8-oxoguanine deaminase
Amino acid sequence: MLTQRTWIKNPLAVFTANQLDAAGGLVIEGSRIAELLSAGQQPARPVDSVIDAAECVLLPGLINTHHHFYQTLTRAWAPVVNAPLFPWLKQLYPVWARLQPEALALASRVAMAELLLSGCTTTTDHHYLFPQGMEEAIDVQVEVVGELGMRALLTRGSMSLGEDDGGLPPMHTVQSAEVILEDSQRLIQRYHQRGEGAWMQIALAPCSPFSVTPDIMRESAAMAQREDVRLHTHLAETLDEEQFCLERFGLRTVDYLDSVGWLSDRTWLAHGIHFNEEEIRRLGAAGTGICHCPVSNMRLASGMCPTRDLEAAGAPIGLGVDGSASNDASNLMYEARQALYLQRLRYGTEYATPERILGWATRGSARVIGREDIGQLAVGKQADLALFRLDELRFSGSHDPIAALLLCGAERADSVMVGGKWRVREGQIVGLDVKSLIARHRHAAKRLFADI
Ligand SMILES: [Zn+2]
């Protein structure tokens, strides 16, 4: 059987971070990009279908490097709307502890649907809640990822340090080290795919310094090394956390990270805000990735990630929407726009260009999660891409199409392809009844708060 060839023809603009000429569009063959065409150039061989992209900007599929899907059930909850991280967490933990598999499946479907519609083709999720009945939470998520046809790096999160032992989460939300490690091993064996074009990967992700023991950090690092999978955690998000590390371990956050064997290029960190110069140098030298989550950082007033200094030191930077209880939208284009504006406040207009920020959302995020086969429009890479139409009202009168995406506020892709398959067409997810999903998800969100 011949492999299907599709020509995405003559886009208005193409975002190739490496300045490749693709004005004539690109040809997809099977699951990969086969040709990049310059203006007026014809494909080398006949194609089976042609997509006219004359009104569209073509981007590599965006990559989301931090999320908590389950939190879509607890968006904009009045008691925590105006709370900073620690009180926000303390009020939400008991609600989250009521999570059940069906609600997690709906929450994951909603989060991924939102991401897909914003042009995202690969996402991570950091799931660290395994109360009774939720022992197979990651298995539930694997199934939903398959339904939506996205690429995913699901992280087996964990919490092992409860309130009685000096941690932040309530005791009924934490698990023993044995259970965590056994399940981590099982998930890697069952689901982790290796190599080019992988659709499903597993990483290990103890939640944060204030919710896990140093032992779990060390054991997770050892398992990640042994199994060659990635490591993820929250770090240096707030000054409360820094204070916790100083009091409990007598160490600042990066010293703590180093002390448990995590300061490496296998690790990526969510937030990465409160670092001093020496810590930035060490993170850069180690090649530790940082996921910048601007909206969450602004909502919780956590601070600003020092992206320029981290980049200059050698740390890869990616973007993440973070969980929906602190964002509360799973829209990666919206996140890129906020990153541009927030980083301009810190480093000025000339640093935070649309090209740099879109670079973080694509190639940067790919580096952060250790992938070289996605995040770029180049021959041989996976055919993961998004088309944004610029004939909407919000773009009328704009000139530079790439800048217009962020400055005019693009938020919804017209078409999204993952591994050569269309997952979004004309702004709709192929095969998903969104109306019915919303009805079921809203019902599950209400039930979570019943009798509270
Ligand atoms: Zn988070």
Notes: The mean pLDDT is 97.
